[in-house]
Amino acid sequence: MTGTRLEKPPMTNCADFQERLPELFETNANLSADEHLKSCENCTALVRDLEYIAQQAKLLLPIHDPSPGVWENIRSAIHSDSSQNNVNPSSAPPTASAPPTGR
Amino acid sequence: MSVGQTESKPAHQHLRRNPPIAGEAEAIAAAQAGDEKAFEMLYALHKRRVYSLCLRMLGNVAAAEDLTQDAFLQLYRKIGTFRGDSAFSTWLHRLSVNVVLMHLRKKGLPQISLEEALEPAQEDGPRKDLGARDLRLSGSIDRVTLERAIENLPPGYRLVFVLHDVEGYEHNEIADMLSCSIGNSKSQLHKARMKLRDLLRTGQRKETAV
Question: Does B67 lie in the same domain as B145?
Answer without folding.
Answer: no
